[in-house]
């Protein structure tokens, strides 16, 4: 298990990014189905960047990398790009969750209103670290995962070797989550805000 001073592995970043792509694709579809085309277009632009960074063939073409070049440098480039994108996104997730709760007529807690809402807010088949929840990191789920990755990227030094078996970090239990996140959030918030920007 990685220590708090260890950066997240490449595999953790790829799994979290893949979950983000799946959930934000659903969000874009809901926006468009409710004639909120402007919000859908903005999110689609962000999703293009996220897919280019996450999908290997897309970034090979985008960054000019060739198969056989230094794999570790290539992985670091992708992680650096994901750090920028996730920093842009983290403050927008609460608004996105509120929009989805209104449009889907569903709370993010308790019994969600249908399968689509349940998968969006709680993750497929209740895989909570893949659901957007309230959009706030202190409530756990995917926003906590993203915040955790950003925090470890900011504070960590060494990165674990790439393996296909590494899973996304799972949010700590409810008793410890809020205290732990509030402490870490206060330490890194200023830095994140300096680097953050709007979705273009």
The main β sheet shows up as: none
List how many beta strands DSSP finds.
0
Unreliable segments of 5+ consecutive residues: 57-69
Helix-strand pattern, N to C?
HHHHHHHH
Strand coverage percent = under 5%
The number of helices is 8
Percent helix: 55-70%
- Could you tell me how far the N terminus lies from the C terminus, measured between alpha carbons in angstroms? 36 Å
Mean pLDDT rating: 78
Compute the CA-based radius of gyration.
Answer: 17 Å
Please identify the structural class as seen in this structure. mainly alpha
Shape: globular
What do you see in this structure?
The protein has 200 residues and is mainly α. Helix content is 63%, strand content 0%. The protein is built from eight helices and no strands. It has helices spanning 10-33, 37-54, 56-63, 71-90, 93-103, 115-122, 141-155, 174-195. The protein is globular. The model is unreliable at 57-69 (pLDDT under 50).
């Amino acid at each position: 298990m990685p220590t708090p001073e260890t950066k997240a592995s490449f595999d953790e970043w790829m799994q979290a990014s893949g979950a983000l792509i799946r959930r934000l694709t659903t969000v874009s579809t809901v926006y468009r189905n409710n004639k909120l085309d402007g919000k859908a277009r903005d999110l689609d632009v962000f999703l293009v960047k996220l897919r280019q960074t996450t999908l290997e063939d897309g970034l090979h073409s985008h960054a000019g990398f060739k198969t056989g070049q230094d794999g570790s440098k290539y992985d670091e480039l992708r992680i650096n790009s994901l750090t920028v994108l996730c920093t842009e996104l983290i403050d927008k997730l609460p608004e996105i969750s509120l929009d989805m709760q209104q449009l889907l007529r569903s709370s993010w807690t308790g019994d969600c209103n249908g399968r689509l809402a349940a998968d969006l807010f709680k993750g497929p088949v209740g895989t909570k670290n893949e659901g957007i929840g309230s959009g706030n990191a202190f409530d756990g789920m995917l926003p906590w995962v993203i915040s955790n990755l950003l925090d470890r990227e900011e504070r960590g030094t060494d990165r674990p070797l790439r393996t296909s078996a590494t899973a996304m970090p799972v949010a700590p239990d409810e008793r410890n989550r809020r205290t732990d996140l509030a402490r870490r959030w206060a330490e890194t918030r200023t830095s994140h805000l300096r680097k953050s920007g709007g979705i273009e």
